[in-house]
Amino acid sequence: MSQFLTIKQASQWATRLLEKQVTTSNISYLIQYGRIKKHNENGTILIDVTDLENYYKPHHQTKENIWKKRLGEDLNWALSFDEYKESERTKHVHRIHPYKGKFIPQLVEYFLDDHTDDFKKKVFFKKGDIILDPFCGSGTTLVQANELGMHANRILLLPNWRR
């Protein structure tokens, strides 16, 4: 026999399952876009627990495990910066405009700053060094280099202009 939950109960159920906040808006989104079926009873929207289980079961794995299955066990998960919220990953000037290929500042800091770990055995950059970013997408490397006391430059190629 099916067990039905209200939207609020479904969000609480999913929050316990995933061990992270699932809001009523998240559940409403799933219903609106047909990810889970809604049932009506006297004007109240109800959700079948079985539908929730079927939807969330594949999502119950950690992101790390999902990506390691796809890319291999030797994946260095520390470079995912998964512990940061989106607002922390795009600190200060990095949110000025959208750019699909942008680095998160923490990734650039990882390669430029003077910390060491198992992956990065040597310190490659020091204060006062010059960092060249020939692609200079949204400027994240330039900004982070300057924050770390390094000089940053980009290459600007202009077409040959006729006089």
Automatic annotation (TrEMBL):
Protein name stated in the entry: DNA-methyltransferase (Cytosine-specific)
Keywords: Methyltransferase, Transferase
Gene3D superfamilies referenced in this protein's UniProt entry, alphabetically: Vaccinia Virus protein VP39
Domain spans labelled DNA methylase N-4/N-6: 56-151
Major enzyme class: transferase
Gene Ontology BP terms: methylation
EC number: 2.1.1.113
GO molecular function, one term: site-specific DNA-methyltransferase (cytosine-N4-specific) activity
InterPro entries referenced in this protein's UniProt entry, alphabetically: DNA_methylase_N4/N6 (IPR002941), SAM-dependent_MTases_sf (IPR029063)
Keyword Transferase: yes
Organism: Candidatus Scalindua rubra
